[in-house]
Amino acid sequence: MWTEKYRPRSLDEMVDQEEIVNRLKSFVKARNVPHCIFAGPPGTGKTTAALCLAHDLYGPGYQEHLMELNASDERGINVVRETVKTFARTRSIGDVPFKILILDEADNMTSDAQQALRRTMERYTETARFILIANYSGRIIEPIQSRCAPFRFTYLPEEHIRKRIEYIAENEGVVLLEDGLKAIIELGGGDLRRTINILQTAASTGKPVDAETVYSVVGKANPKDVREMMITALNGDFINARNKLRELLLKYGLAGSDILGQIHSEVFRLNIPERWKVKIIEIIGETDYRLLQGSNEEIQLSALLAKFVEAGEEIRKGG
C-alpha cells in the first residue's frame, strides 16, 4: 500500500500541522510525554504523528516500547483490565522510563472500558503514557479528557496534498494529468490517506491518470457529465436529459443516491438565481427522502429532471 510506503517516519517529515509537530518535538526534546488525545477527521495524520513521536523518542527500535491497539482489536473492559494493564505496569528499559500505548479510534470504546482505562492511566503514569486517537473527542469521557493534552488535527490544505501526490506519482512512474490530479484532490476532500489510495487505484489501470479514469475507478460520475445532464434539463430538453441519466446509471453502475449526491453538489455551480438554487435543493431533499423509503430510483430521478425542466421554464420567464 502506498499509504504505508510513503508514511512519514519522523516528525521532521510531516507536512502541515506545524503547531502540533512543534509541540510534539518539545516533548521529544524534554524526553517526557503527557497523556494525549489526538482528535480530528480521518486521513489527517493522527496515527502517523503518534508513531513519529515514538520513533523520535526511542529511536529505530521504537516498536519495543510501543503497543498499538486498533478498532479491529478487541478493546472491551477485559482487555483494558488485562492486556493494557500488563503492558502499562512494566517499566521501559532505556533512557526513557516509560512506554507508549496508542489506542486508535478510542471514541468507539464502550463507556465501561473507558472508565477502566481512566483508572489504569491514573495508576501507571510513571511507566506508561497513553495516546488516544479519535475522530470525535466528545465521545471520550470527561475524566479521561481532563487527564490528557488535546491535539486538534485539521484537513490538509490543497497545496500540500498536491505536492505529496505529485511526489508519489513521480516516484512510482505514474503519468498523472492535470485534470486527473484535480479530480483526485476533489474526491479526497482533504483526507490524504484516501487521496493516495485513489491515486494508487487509478494508477493500477496502467493508463495515464486523467479525470475520466479517476471517476471510473472510484465509482462516481464525472461532474461534467452530471452538470451537462442538469443544464440539458434546465434548457427544456427532458428526453435528452433523461437519456443522459440512464447513460450515467449504466456507464458508472451508480446507485440513484450517488447520482443525487453529485447533483446536489453541482447545483451550487449552476448559473441560476439564488432563490432557484434554494428551491432545487428542497426538491433534491424530497427526492432523497423518497429514495431512502425504497422508491424506484429511475422514476424518482426522472421526476427530479422534470422539476429541473419546469424550473428552467420559470427562470426564462423571469419568474
String of helices and strands: HHEHEHEHEHEHHHHHHHHH
Count of individual domains: 3
The radius of gyration over CA amounts to 25 Å
Looking at this structure, what is the CATH superfamily of the largest domain?
Answer: P-loop containing nucleotide triphosphate hydrolases
Head-to-tail CA distance between termini: 54 Å
CATH architecture descriptor text of the largest domain: 3-Layer(aba) Sandwich
Helix content: 55-70%
| Percent of sequence in beta strands | 5-15%
| Helix-strand category | alpha/beta
Instruction: Report the CATH C-level class of the largest domain.
Output: Alpha Beta
Strand order of the largest sheet: 2-3-4-1-5
What is the fold named in CATH at topology level of the largest domain?
A: Rossmann fold
Oligomer: single chain
| pLDDT < 50 runs, ≥5 residues | none
Task: Report the strand count.
Answer: 5
Largest sheet report: 5 strands, parallel
Mean pLDDT: 89
- Tally of helical segments: 15
Gross morphology is elongated
